[in-house]
Amino acid sequence: MQRFALALFVIMTPLVLSAQDYLALHPENPHYFVYRGKPLILITSAEHYGALINLDFDYEVYLQTLKADRLNLTRTFSGAYVEPFGAFNIAENTLAPASGRFIAPWPRTEVQGYAGGGNKFDLSRWDERYFSRLRDFISKARDNGVIVEFTFFCPFYEDVQWQLSPMNATNNVNHVGNVGRNDVYTLDRNGGLLAIQEALVRKIVTELRTYGNVIYEICNEPYFGGVTMEWQHRIADVIIETEKELGVKHLISQNIANEAARIVDPHPGVSVFNFHYAWPPVAISQNYQLGKVIGDNETGFDGNADSTYRREGWAFILAGGALYNNLDYSFTAGHEGGTFAYPATQPGGGSKALRQQLAHLKAFMERFAFVSMQPDSTVVSGLNTGVTVQALAEEGKQYAVYLSGGGQQDVTLRLPPGTYSAEWLNTTMGSWHAPTRVVSRNGSARLKVPDYRFDIALRVIRLR
Q1: What is the reported pLDDT for 188?
Q2: List of domains in the chain
């Protein structure tokens, strides 16, 4: 295995970017991001992670579409994992390239026999076509105001995915990876793959050293497929060690659980803790004390309705989250503008309309000095059964409130004495109701709620 370690990377020319050009945690409130000197929340409805490795996917059109839809995040996989046609019942899955259209970090050889069609891979070398595509993808994302969450690895849920990975011994000429799928991401049972994995991490981190619009995610859904915590911490260490030598620093994210879990003994180098399908958003309240970003970086698999994913996004962000990503199946190869009419059997949703609704959420938050706010469960009372509330507050100054569940006609707001402006937002259409003056004399005020169907949002700002 020595030859793998010898060919990792060479430290390049000095960095030309300043520290503020890199996405970071906001120094005044690390539950949020800062980028190029401005506070930031990341919100998107994005493709299913194949934009980089699927040669049929025109990522330039896709990124332009995200910008036009006023969204600012995408998530992409490295190529260590790829899916077969029909996986998870996803039609036109971008993470399942057509035969001959899968590109990985490692080059093909002259030896036939890759399980997905074509020749095997050489894990001791790099495919410069891949890295050229990677740099171009990240560069065009940056130009379109899009942050890329780059996911290095993904567990193999079933044997069929492991059979397609270049790391599987049957698919490479290096005779490494002759292990079961549940041993791939371990420190002691990986069949020689740890050196390959570390080399890949170092290479990508080096290639992307001058791009500030990147978050490095260690592994997608590591709670499946035998991924050990010790291995995850080792990958985090490799990122940190490599960047220390390069003189740069990107944020590292770790995927914690589906729905919710309390984080115990986190790696000190991890700055973003991600959950999937985080509805209701209790993962935030369980872990807010960590003082890091909490994200919901995958949702879907709950039918096709836009309202399902709009409501999850609003609830998560108004509960104190700073990252939300819906799986949007209207993005496919050939439909990079988000126009694919997927079948009703698709496990999730996504549409132009949903992207607009999530853009309303992003614009709503940008009307606040949200860095000064924190979750507050005591602001609103008097709710009907079945109506839930999430709220952010800067006591006595600004309040962001989100009601989910129809039929609420009025609410009581806990407000310090003073005069406030209150505006209701239609979360579906993005239209604002006329502002009303609210006077709090005894620490509370009653406010009428406009008619709405599923959900509605409120902005309250102190006037005097």
Answers
A1: 97
A2: 2-371 (3.20.20.80), 376-462 (2.60.40.1180)
